[in-house]
Amino acid sequence: MNGRPAIAPVVLPHARCEAGCPLCPAERGLDSRSHFAPVPSPDEVHSSVAKALGRSRGRAVEIGFYGGDLWSLPRGPRTALLDAAETEVRRKRASGIRLSLTPHSVLRAPLGEFRTRGVRAVEVGVFSVHGNTLRALGMKRAARCGVEAMGRLHRARLRAIAVLMPGLPSSSHRSALTTAEAVLRTRPDGVRLLPALALGGTNLGALFRTGRWVPMELDQAVTTCREQVRLVRAAGVPVLRVGMQPDQDLWEAPPILAGPFDPSLRHRVESDLLRGPASAALTSVWSFGTRAVTFIVHPGDESWLRGHENSTIRSFRDRFRLESIRVLALNEQPRGRIRAIAGLLQREQVPPLRGERKAS
Questions:
Q1: Where residue 28 falls among pLDDT bands split at 50, 70, 90?
Q2: Quick check: pTM over 0.70?
């Protein structure tokens, strides 16, 4: 088997997570859970694995319990779900299990037992490391709880993935960056950046409706996520996701009341990151009389260089008064690095890299 594993998702309800969970119902009574998902059955685990195998194309399959906190479920359903997932691992139909847990659950759950059952990775809803933000949400955990949970996962030899949520109440651009810096000191295996959305029926939705919180605008989310991605990449940590997708991350997608929702958010963020290097490369070869330029990029960066609906290329054309811009995607060009050459070149005319580390 090869490549990244195909995920067999099992979405858990947001209803029993820690107090103040931004995605749980605003009211924590039984009646408030009626529009959220029931706890999935073990049969749904087996069904999800079967579907993932059908589309895996030779890749390994990993069972992912997403959404709510699995350890906060009642013991019976929780054990039944883990038993079903472990069965799939022992049958070698799945290579491992991924859990979504709150920091409190990480600190009290039997991680050794999890490893024995086939758990290989845990996603931790750190959200923020700032006490003011956690208190504004109604959370009772200490600010250091999230990083302590990441540390415990490392000691248990489990892959630790941090989920950060910039734009929460009583947060700022600066607090989002210091949160990323604190989490990166724990050496995570991956980071998800989910700018906070006001979703109907959730804690954040209630804070928005009552005027106690105003979500970020889209441009603000792009700027903050861009700088967080820059920090994460500099630490050599993979960025696994930028932006929440309520129809995938929650069992029943609640209405989006406000906030920086955009299915192309990651594209906007990555384009923003490449705009600076591309501008510097273009400036270095431009002179009066230059009418055409060729950009050399890695294939994985081409769409990000072009920008949303080719906006970056259009802006360069207008700013530098160019008649033509060509983008050549070459595998030997390192990711995140841009070359610019005056004139319109064909692939065979591109000079070889010198003193550069080639892309793997």
A1: low
A2: yes
